[in-house]
Amino acid sequence: MSYGNSGDDRLSKNARREAAREKSRILREEQKKKDRRTRVLLQGGIILASLAIIAIIALVLVNSIKPEGPGPANMASDGIQISQGGIALQTPALKANQTPVANTPDTSTGVLDIQMYVDYLCPICGQFEATNGGYISSLLDNGGATVEIHPIAILDRLSQGTKYSTRAVNAAACVANFAPNQYYAFHNLLFANQPAENSTGLTDDQIVDLTTQAKVDKASQIASCIRSEDFKAWVGASTARALNGPIPNSNVDKVQGTPTVIVNGLKYEGSVTDLATFQAFVVQAAGDAFNKNSTATPTPTPTP
Question: Which residues pair with 145 in a beta bridge?
């Protein structure tokens, strides 16, 4: 009787079992290696993506936080001083990071020294201008005052991302730089055409059109300056200086809001919509020197 080769059969089964186990082990090792490669690639991809994001953020920051550039000519005090006939006091441009040079009021003639810190988007500034702009212009016209205008940008957040306050101040700086004697006319037009808060504000083209209405000299250079925002860095720096103080030739430590109006060193605290109150303040701030020596009449009656 033959029983076959039972030992060989068992060895054959064992061999097959061991082969299957070895195959499984090899597959597991290969899968582990594949998983490690996947993790390495994934981690490398995450690192590269992170580095790319960091590079993009750095580029944005570099482009948005530009070093302070030179300021506009005729605004060495961070403002422009206007006298009779709209004639501007001409001063050299500030160099980058240069400390502003305050104008020295002439107290010997009785001429009023008026300083105004304004944001061209500020509705309260617009109300002050509508109420008192004619009176201030009359003081300029008859030589009774000089007006030093400091445009600042504190309301960019209220122009739906267009940063209208900064663009308007940059435009004012462009006019001061190239056509200082038309600055006051342009200043008045910015308020006459003032956009509402929480709007997009005027476009650059609309602002350029206002410079044309103001009959500025060097119109093409001013238009280019406006569109390129040549004085954007200076706008930020001069605004920061006003907000940090001190405010020269005044009893004001720093600008805390607009309008900040200072007459002969004294800050006006009255209503922005009451012409008589502002006129009375002017006379009080001016004192006897204004009444006796100035050729201006302190209380003209323009229609607000």
Answer: 112
**pLDDT per position as a tens digit, 250-273:** 999 999 999 999 999 999 999 999
Instruction: Give me 103's structure tokens.
Output: 């104008």
If you count them, how many residues does the chain have? 304
**CATH at residue 237:** 3.40.30.10
Using a 10 angstrom Cβ sphere, with 0-12 exposed, 13-18 middle and 19 or more buried, the burial of residue 129 is buried
Helix, strand or coil, per DSSP, at residue 296: coil
CB atoms within 10 A of CB 277: 16
Ramachandran category for residue 108: left, alpha or beta (phi over 0 → left; psi -120 to 50 → alpha):
alpha
Neighbour tally for 99: CB within 10 Å: 10
Which tokens hold the place of 299?
A: 């209380």
Query: From CA 195, how far away is CA 236, in angstroms rounded?
Result: 21
Quick check: 176 and 74 in contact, CB under 8 A? yes
164-178 and 232-244 helices, crossing angle to 10°: 100
> What backbone phi and psi angles, to 5 degrees, belong to 136?
-65, -40
> What is the pLDDT at residue 298?
40
One domain for residues 94 and 215:
yes
pLDDT band with cut points at 50, 70 and 90 for residue 52 = low
pTM of the model: 0.75
Count of domains for the chain = 2
Examine the domain organization and report whether 251 and 205 are in the same domain: yes
pLDDT tens digits along 180-229: 999 999 999 999 999 999 999 999 999 999 999 999 999 999 999 999 99
In DSSP terms, which residues pair with 163 in a beta bridge? none
- Domain residues for the domain of 277 are 80-293
Q: Looking at 34, 65, 96, which one is the last position of a domain?
A: 65
Between strands 112-118 and 260-263, the pairing is antiparallel
Compute, in degrees rounded to 10, the torsion defined by CA atoms 280, 83, 78, 289: -40
